[in-house]
Amino acid sequence: MTTSPLTLRRAGDSPALLGLLGIVGFGALLEILPRVGVLKEEYFPPTSKIIAALIDELGRGGFWQAVIGTVSTWLIGLSIAVVAGIVLGIVIGSVPALRLATASTIEFLRPIPSVALLPLAIVLFSAPIRSILLLVVYASFWQVLIQVLHGVTDVDPVARETAASYRLNRWRQARYLVWPTTLPYAMTGIRLAASVALVLTITGELLIGGTKGIGEEIAVAQSSIAVPSMYALIVVSGLIGLIANLATRRAERLVLAWHPSVRRELPL
Amino acid sequence: MLEIKSLRKTYGGQGRTVEALRDITLTVEDGQFVCVVGPSGCGKTTLLRCLGGLLTPTSGEVKVAGQTVTGPPDGLAIVFQEYGRSLFPWLRVAENIELPLKSKGIGRAERRKLVDESLSAVGLGDAGKAYPWQLSGGMQQRVAIARAIAFQPKVMLMDEPFAAVDAQTRADLEDLVRTVWQRFGMTMLFVTHDIDEAVYLGQRVVVLSASPTSVLENLDIDLSDERDQLKTRSEARFVELRTHVYARIQEAKGVAAR
Amino acid sequence: MTRVLSRTGLLLGLPVVLLVTWWFASAGSKSFYQPPLETIIKVFPDTWTGARFKSDVFPSLIRLFIGYSLAVLLGITLGVLIGANRRLRALVEPLLEFLRAIPPPVLVPILILIAGIGNPTKVLVIVIGGVWPVLLNTVEGVRGVDEVLSDTCRSYRIGGWLRLRTFILRAASPQIVVGARQALSISIIMMVIGELLGATNGLGYTVVEFQRGFQIPEMWSGVFVLGLLGVLLSLAFTLVERRVLNWYHGARAAERSGH
Q1: Is residue B82 in a domain?
Q2: What is the residue range of B234's domain?
Q3: Which chain C residues touch A266 with a CB distance below 8 Å?
Q4: Residues A22, C94: C-beta atoms closer than 8 Å
Q5: Which CDD domains does the record match to this protein (chain B) (predicted)?
Q6: Residues B27, B101: one domain?
Q7: Which residues of chain B make contact with C251, given a CB cutoff of 8 A?
Q8: Considering B136, B152, B168, which residue would you say is the last residue of a domain?
Q9: Are residues B109 and B141 in the same domain?
């Protein structure tokens, strides 16, 4: 009685410990509930079985090929989207007439759900990888483009006038004025694009199939009703997502370490 | 009545504690106007937050109308320094004033009346429909004061309310606070770092020491009740009093530095 | 006058140019998979009005509406609870970080396995995808409420439901709206995926059926419908957002103009 409030207090003071407790507690709950029969074990295998299935997967060569497949599709799609988004964003953003002319088209194309393109992609491309890449690039491209467009137009008017009064040429203005302002926005866009791209990569693999990837592994596990493997693969997809998130956030901090402003995602 | 007995407040834990208030004892009679001044960083805001029941004292006691303060007490209103952040930007001016009255359970007709009265008392009779951010800084602080008035508090606490407005607006607002106090007769505790402001406004000025804070002096301001920005400030007695307070604060800073 | 004209010209110019280009470029198209735009538009009315609207479009919309509403409600409720409670936040934050990193579509096969392919599953699929952005943004919004406002509420003894309604939810609303917008596009995606993986009717199902049956112009028209749905809902969202966040944009503009 005398020690328990104290230990609780101590755990409460350390968020990391509490967080660990949360994850362990969640795992324990999913272990116990199926075992006592609250959840059907058939559909909700206990945590220990999922972990066992995960370990099995880790030992399988096909699994690692799938991981590599997913990650490389993701990276290719993301790179295309990022390059296209930044280049087009800067070009469109720095020419007012162009910005005005494209505004309605962008507003119309952006909300088109990427999966709507799925049947199109399937009939247009015979190679599944191309179909998946179309979805990935389409979905993540807008994230980068929109952010970059906002960044380019956010250049401080006073700074712009200063640059003009010192007669910096167009290239120098782009280099010392537009790019530094745009960079934080671009990084936000890349971070958002990275998670969207990963979701679409795995979704594409799941729905289209025909490429090595985690999504297809899940589809295979589903058709053979290997429930613990399905869960294990879902955990893997979550872990890949987690690593991707952490990596992009870390990259963002590294790139913007010198930057005074911290961009928040707020309604634009 | 506002009673503060041996109030002490320390922050921190885990090896490092900071003593913000060491020993504050102070009584404010009903209907009195007391200003609290002290060197910057002397824990004025901490004191005010303890009085308002927003902070729990480490030791000592605060009583409002005979009741020990354990949480925000009934019949007490605070006007914060950051007017831009103490008004709800999604509510119109009138709604901002009305909100505390709603939680008090006052009926609609009575609320209307209180809102109108308090707005005209601060000279903003026709601003009720505006949003706070459509007003200037000085006007926003007027709204915050109107909100406090409408709440009909027995005690009003003001935490450096005019630190962030320009000098001319500030003079107007000072006179407004005097008028409000004279008209509604609440007990007023006004925290400021501006010595002139404290002497000009208060019936009494409490001088605090540098941190860790205690009361250095309790000074009666024997100026007439009718105060005027030009006349009062040029009176010999005003100059004497402010010089005295200034010297005490310099002294307090010196002690702290040593 | 001329300025207004040139502005509208610029706004409508590009879409018109693109459509016209498509129309003529595809006009004589013999390619089976890329039918002329004219053909697509011709099959559009027959394909999407009448019986099919009732049997496929309408059920999809209802499911989307219910699923999205549930996701927003659930996300806000949980988000307020977690955001307002420091300990709870520390407890669940890493877990949420992991759960939200799971691409929602991978949960669809499991859900179908557990709950079949009925309407509840399809709604659940939408909820599971849409809840995360709302939840996480609400947590951020509630956590970031202004301290001075919070003190103001405390000192005026504004508590309970009144505090939640007039302070917490309003203060967090800019963030909640960001989440709700992300949730909207994810919900549409999840609606389609739910129907692709297991359904007997619905918009997504129909489009894929057209694809599998090689009814290519019909399939193209289906893609149009889905795109149109996304655009219209996003437009509706913008209108709602303008109303809800009117104060926010005003306050921001006032701040920028150096008030």
Answers
A1: no
A2: 2-75+155-257
A3: 174-175, 178
A4: yes
A5: ABC_NrtD_SsuB_transporters
A6: no
A7: 89, 131, 133
A8: B152
A9: yes
- The answer to whether residues B119 and B244 belong to one domain is no
List, for residues C178-206, the tens digit of each pLDDT value: 999 999 989 998 998 888 887 778 888 88
Residue finishing a domain among B124, B152, B180: B152
Domains, chain C, in order of start with CATH, read 49-205 (1.10.3720.10)
Q: Quick check: B255 and B210 in contact, CB under 8 A?
A: yes
DSSP symbols for B28-40: E-TT-EEEEE-ST
CA–CA dist C64, B225 (Å, integer): 69
What values do phi and psi take at B16, rounded to 5? Answer: -115, 115
A174-210 pLDDT tens trace: 778 888 888 888 998 999 899 899 999 999 998 888 8
Give chain B's mean pLDDT.
90
pLDDT digits (tens, 9 = 90+) for A208-239: 888 889 999 999 998 888 889 999 999 999 99
Size of interface A-C (CB pairs under 8 A): 176
Kindly determine whether residue A113 and residue C219, on different chains, have CB atoms separated by under 8 Å: no
Residue A56 buriedness (CB in 10 A; 0-12 / 13-18 / 19+) = middle
Chains with at least 3 CB pairs less than 8 angstroms from chain B:
C
Nearest to C250 among B85, B99, B133 (CB): B133
In total, the C-beta contacts within 8 angstroms joining chain B to chain C are 76
CATH number at residue B224: 3.40.50.300
CB contact under 8 A, C231 and A245: no
> What values do phi and psi take at A29, rounded to 5?
-60, -45
Q: Per-residue pLDDT tens for A117-152?
A: 888 888 888 888 889 999 999 999 999 999 999 888
Beta strands (DSSP E) in chain B are 2-13, 16-28, 33-37, 59-64, 67-68, 76-79, 155-159, 187-191, 204-208, 213-220
Are A113 and C227 a contacting pair at CB < 8 A?
Answer: yes
State how many domains chain B has. Answer: 2
Q: Do B103 and C158 touch (CB under 8 A)?
A: yes
CB B109 within 8 A of CB B98: no
Residues B22 and B50 grouped into a single domain? yes
Same domain for B144 and B94: yes
Residue A205: closest CA among A215, A195, A196: A215
Q: How confident is the model at residue C127 (pLDDT cuts 50, 70, 90)?
A: very high
Q: Where is pLDDT greater, at A153 or A186?
A: A186
Both B46 and B166 in one domain: the answer is: yes
* Shortest alpha-carbon distance between residue C256 and chain B (Å): 11
Does B244 share its domain with B181? yes
C-beta atoms surrounding C43 within 10 Å: 18
Q: If one looks up domain A48-255 in CATH, what number appears?
A: 1.10.3720.10
Structural domain includes residue B80: no
In a domain, B81, yes or no: no
Give the residue with greater pLDDT, A266 vs B244: B244
B10 found inside a domain: yes
